[in-house]
């Protein structure tokens, strides 16, 4: 296997030690149920010094940080104050054991929350770690609908490592073009690519058209030096620190497109946790972030190959998996499968592999794909291998990085490599101590092998976490053990065919 040039820690939730600085805030823990009342609405803000419309929660951007302890129940009363669009919130990295309807994926786990409606998310946070939440409807993550979710260890327990203070860093990318306009661009014929973000934000703050580093750059800079009084919305956070102290740095990345690299000048960091799973500690100078270790299965029951390709459908540019571009139905899968509504989505299972002669180094010989809304129905309690295979895009000599995120489960990253996965790569897979994650990267013209156990009943999205790619169809849906799911709240099923069923039952 060809290793990447740097340590790669995928979207998202990273815990590091930093030998240098921090401030520790003592949190008074109350009852085991953490209640939050949120209102989602658009607001004006200047995250990068240029005022723009952002999506906020309770007038805050980024949204409020949720703090809880492992074993607590989080209860969020979410009211949609948007006037013309629905909304849902996905709790990234939370497995939603026993509460698949609270996963916050429109058309998969629930109906979108309509303007003026309130939906109650109630779920248990079962593992300590650094998580985040974000909108999962349209491209609302790009509009700024995100925030941190910090889960500390259980009451009465202590971490196995010592630190003197703690900081939280929420990383994101920011465009001056609104999310709605970006959606139109991506859905146009020809497609209008949204381009690189105008700014990068830390805790919702960044600088556009000036640089903090100019005064310290010996090579000079074409951008002016940023000058702040300190009270501007875009002024950087100042982290007050003391020398010779050890600080815990929690880092989460909600980027919709950008792959970021984080470093602290003249300091090393020790990686301790990723995606809610503890790691064998190791030291780094910097680490990459894109949009734990353990050993229990050595064999798989089923293997699915997923080929990532860029295609066209009726002239429109799309992303596809095994030549199928995901087109979500109007009725959430969870409700339609639970109630046996077979007309709600394609009943034909999507392809489980691609032709062996496919040349991943060349643009597709047949660029035409099809829309599909079928699901991979997985037997409950089985071990599933997924081989993600990257290929050439429509244009020659272009293959992109794709961070893939699985809802409802963690998976073991068994390995990765260059070229097309083959039998010889089988012997290279790590079955002894593979990292346990919920997001993994597939590199250009490469493959990544994952393994997970279908131990969480529900219907779960598995998709590229680059928001424009998901919007253009780059995802699949897994369903397992839906018959074991308890009663789904009516509010989650109030649309489509399940909504009609509920109204019919109430009428009768």
TrEMBL record:
PROSITE patterns: MULTICOPPER_OXIDASE1, MULTICOPPER_OXIDASE2
Gene3D superfamilies: Cupredoxins - blue copper proteins (2.60.40.420)
Signal peptide: none
Entry keywords, A to Z: Copper, Glycoprotein, Membrane, Metal-binding, Oxidoreductase, Repeat, Secreted, Transmembrane, Transmembrane helix
CDD domains, per database record: CuRO_1_AAO, CuRO_3_AAO
Chain ranges passing through the membrane: 12-30
GO molecular function: copper ion binding; oxidoreductase activity
Subcellular location: Secreted
Family (UniProt): Belongs to the multicopper oxidase family.
InterPro entries according to UniProt: Cu-oxidase-like_N (IPR011707), Cu-oxidase_2nd (IPR001117), Cu-oxidase_C (IPR011706), Cu-oxidase_fam (IPR045087), Cu_oxidase_CS (IPR033138), Cu_oxidase_Cu_BS (IPR002355), Cupredoxin (IPR008972), CuRO_1_AAO (IPR034259)
Protein name: L-ascorbate oxidase
PANTHER family: FI03373P-RELATED, MULTI-COPPER OXIDASE
Annotated organism of origin: Lactuca virosa
Cofactor(s) required for function per UniProt: Cu cation
GO cellular component: extracellular region; plasmodesma
Pfam families per UniProt: Cu-oxidase (PF00394), Cu-oxidase_2 (PF07731), Cu-oxidase_3 (PF07732)
Boundaries of every Plastocyanin-like domain copy: 40-153, 167-293, 360-480
């Amino acid at each position: 296997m060809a290793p990447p040039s740097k340590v790669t820690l995928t979207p998202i939730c990273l815990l590091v030690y930093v030998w240098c600085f921090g401030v520790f805030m003592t949190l008074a823990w109350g009852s085991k149920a953490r209640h939050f009342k949120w209102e989602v609405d658009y607001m004006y803000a200047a995250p990068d010094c240029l005022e723009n419309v952002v999506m906020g929660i309770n007038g805050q951007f980024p949204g409020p940080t949720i703090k809880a302890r492992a074993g607590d129940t989080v209860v969020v009363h979410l009211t949609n104050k948007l006037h013309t669009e629905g909304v849902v919130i996905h709790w990234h990295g939370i497995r939603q054991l026993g509460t698949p309807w609270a996963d916050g994926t429109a058309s998969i786990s629930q109906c979108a929350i309509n303007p003026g409606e309130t939906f109650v998310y109630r779920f248990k946070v079962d593992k300590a770690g650094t998580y985040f939440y974000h909108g999962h409807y349209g491209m609302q993550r790009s509009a700024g609908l995100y925030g941190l979710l910090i889960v500390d260890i259980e009451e009465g327990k202590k971490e196995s490592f010592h630190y003197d203070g703690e900081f939280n860093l929420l990383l994101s990318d920011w465009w001056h073009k609104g999310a709605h306009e970006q959606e139109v661009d991506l859905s146009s014929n020809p497609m209008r690519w949204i381009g690189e973000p105008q700014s990068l934000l830390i805790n919702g703050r960044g600088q556009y058209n000036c640089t903090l580093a100019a005064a310290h750059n010996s090579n000079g800079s074409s951008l002016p030096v940023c000058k702040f009084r300190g009270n501007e919305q875009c002024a950087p956070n100042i982290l007050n620190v003391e020398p010779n102290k050890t600080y815990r740095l929690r880092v989460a990345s909600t980027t919709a497109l950008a792959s970021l690299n984080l470093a602290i000048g003249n300091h090393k960091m020790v990686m301790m946790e990723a995606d809610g799973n503890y790691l064998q500690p190791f030291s780094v100078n910097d680490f990459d972030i894109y949009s734990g270790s353990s050993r229990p299965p050595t064999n798989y029951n089923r293997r699915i190959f997923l080929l990532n390709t860029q295609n066209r459908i009726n002239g429109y540019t799309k992303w596809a998996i095994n030549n199928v571009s995901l087109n979500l139905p109007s009725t959430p899968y969870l409700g339609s499968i639970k109630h046996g509504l077979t007309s709600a989505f394609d009943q034909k299972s999507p392809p489980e592999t691609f032709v062996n002669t496919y040349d991943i180094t060349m643009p597709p010989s047949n660029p035409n794909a099809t829309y599909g809304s079928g699901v991979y129905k997985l037997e409950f309690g089985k071990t599933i291998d997924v081989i993600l295979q990257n290929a050439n895009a429509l244009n020659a000599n272009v293959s992109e990085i794709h961070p893939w995120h699985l809802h409802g489960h963690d998976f073991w990253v068994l390995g990765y490599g260059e070229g097309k996965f083959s039998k010889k790569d089988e012997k290279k897979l790590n079955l002894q101590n593979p990292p346990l994650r919920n997001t993994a990267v597939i590199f250009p013209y490469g493959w990544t092998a994952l393994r997970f156990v279908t131990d969480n009943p529900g219907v779960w999205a598995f998709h590229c976490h680059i928001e424009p790619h998901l919007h253009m169809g780059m995802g699949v849906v897994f369903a397992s053990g839906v018959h074991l799911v308890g009663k789904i709240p009516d509010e989650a099923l109030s649309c489509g065919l399940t909504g009609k069923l509920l109204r019919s039952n109430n009428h009768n």
